[in-house]
Design brief:
441 residues, alpha/beta, seven-stranded mixed beta sheet, binds pyridoxal-5'-phosphate
């Protein structure tokens, strides 16, 4: 046990996000420090970070070069407006990102969160068609079980019921593809499931219903993350790409989780060999050290806007903190680390060991599915009779108490540790999880 840190006296004022506030405050889990692969809790325990924070700290915690870059930037220039002004690091960061991205995803629009990136991409999609004289293309197609953040755009195309049902009618003109998971047809698949490519054909049904001339874009996560890690069926993304091409519909990949090495390459687009028209990213963009997001667009999307009188603003959109100086400094230092330490390559090299480790849980009590790709995985537990999500919650709390932080969604435990991990870390993560699964009834 290390040093302990006092629990705050008043925990009522902070209305916590995506948290069972009353339950949490009765038995708080407080984190007070982080280094590399580990968090330190307020009572001085070391907890291995099995979820890279929230799928975002890909290079590990409190990395010295990132810390220094942020400190230096904060002292040099804290903030610079980016409406009709600029600063060199924003251009440098965008250029480095464009270089990293596959194909001609060469233009980068900065925002501050995944949710903002998604809203930005959806707006660009609609405005793109209008700029090309197809202003009737306003419909947006998402997917059941999809997570695209919590803005009205994101929840409209998103497909997680509890994130939508209490927030009214949301955006008009949205439709959804079916999700790609079927326990019956693909349980315990290793990597990409063999079954399910045909589910992309549903886009043809949606096109037939609404007519292609009304549809602006399709947005999907290459691997659905927050709903519990659903890798795409083999050939599914290729089919979506082909149908979008056939009908002039933009394809957006939401790579907020899959971006920056999570699947073993810089982006899911590369891992799966499909280039979208736009890509939304956040999280690993700055190793989550400063909030930031980036929307990548292909050349044709950007060019559609670069028309008309040159003194005119081409896109009436942006955020006060777009390309924030601290974010750009942190992002540049992060990209250096990814490159210099071969962090994506480490993820790729360990993905086989990771797959074997997670699938070794097959056959344990209550485990009804295991899914994995790159360095992400999910272990789905059978819900308790009459108490869905309770078994998962108990396992999640037990994991934390025994030294493993993971994510919980329903009765599914999700794992996505920092990509600097070693085989010993993988053994530690699954050692704790195995013990917990034996204990939780
Ligand atoms: C695929 C995807 N899109 C968007 C978001 C929203 O990001 P943020 O929480 O930064 O708004 C998330 C967050 O987990 C995500 O996983």
């Amino acid at each position: 046990m290390g040093q302990t840190t006092a629990v705050p006296n008043d925990m009522q004022s902070w209305w916590m996000p995506f948290t069972a506030n009353r339950q949490f405050k009765a038995n708080p889990r407080l984190l007070v420090g982080a280094k590399g692969m580990y968090y330190t809790t307020h009572d001085g325990r070391q907890v291995i970070d099995g979820s890279a924070g929230l799928w975002c700290v890909n290079a590990g915690h409190c990395r010295e070069p990132i810390v220094q870059a942020i400190q230096k930037q904060a002292a040099e220039m804290d903030f610079a407006p980016t409406f009709q002004m600029g600063h060199p690091k924003a251009f440098e960061f965008a250029a480095r990102l464009a270089h990293l991205a596959p194909g001609d995803l060469n233009h980068v629009f900065f925002a501050n969160s995944g949710s903002e990136a998604v809203d930005t991409a959806l707006k660009i999609a609609i405005a793109y068609h209008r700029a090309r004289g197809e202003g009737a293309r306003t419909r947006l197609i998402g997917r059941e079980r999809g997570y695209h953040g919590v803005g009205f755009g994101g929840i409209s195309v998103g497909g997680i019921v509890s994130n939508r049902k209490v927030f009214g009618p949301m955006l008009a003109g949205v439709d959804h593809l079916p999700h790609t998971h079927s326990l019956k047809d693909m349980a315990f698949s290793k990597g990409l499931p063999e079954w399910g490519a045909h589910l992309a054909d549903d886009l043809e049904r949606i096109v037939a219903l609404h007519d292609a001339s009304t549809i602006a874009a399709v947005i999907v996560e290459p691997v659905a993350g927050s709903t519990g890690v659903l890798p795409p069926p083999k050939g599914y993304l290729q089919k979506l790409r082909a149908i979008c091409d056939k009908h002039g519909i933009l394809l957006i990949f939401d790579e907020v989780i899959t971006g920056f090495g999570r699947t073993g390459k810089a982006f899911g687009a590369e891992t799966f060999g499909v280039i979208p028209d736009m890509m939304t990213t956040a999280k690993g963009l700055t190793n989550a050290a400063v909030p930031a997001a980036a929307v990548f667009t292909r050349k044709h999307v950007h060019e559609a806007f670069m028309q008309g009188p040159e003194h005119m603003i081409e896109l009436f959109h942006g955020y006060t903190y777009s390309a924030h100086a601290l974010a750009c400094a942190a992002g540049l230092a992060t990209l250096d680390l990814y490159r210099d330490e071969g962090i994506f390559e480490n993820a790729a090299a360990l993905s086989g060991y990771w797959e074997d480790a997670v699938h070794s849980l097959k056959g344990m009590r209550n485990v009804i599915d295991i899914r994995n790709i790159g360095i992400m995985a999910a272990v789905e537990l059978a819900p308790r009779e009459g108490a869905p999500t309770k078994r998962g919650y108990d396992a999640f709390v037990q994991c934390f108490e025994q030294g493993l932080m993971c994510r919980l969604t329903g009765d599914t435990l999700a794992l996505s540790p920092p990509l600097i991990l070693t085989k010993a870390h993988i053994d530690e993560i699954f050692g704790i999880l195995t013990k917990v699964l034996k204990e939780v009834d």
